[in-house]
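Dear colleague,

Thank you for sharing your sequence with our group. We've completed the structure prediction you requested, and as agreed, I am returning the results in plain text so they can be pasted directly into your records. Please verify that the sequence below matches your submission; if there's any discrepancy, let me know and we will rerun it promptly.
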Amino acid sequence: MLINLSLVARIKLLKIINHSWQKDIVSQIWREAITLLIPKKGKCRTKSSGYRPISLTSCVAKTMERVINNRMK
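Please find the predicted structure tokens below.
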């Protein structure tokens, strides 16, 4: 979790985000998500409706999105 980063690591992360913002570059890894299908309790596992999709995305990308949203307000 990013909340547990040291002050030095937070400053480095902010520099990376600022560089990405200034150069209009977003890392390909930040744009990717891993989607897992979690079975629903009591539902048929042979049908797609018996699963709940969960998308795992980059914490850095989520943080960058929040920074950009705050800057645009």
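Summary note from our side: Residues 8 and 45 are 47 Å apart (CA to CA).

Kind regards,
the structure core
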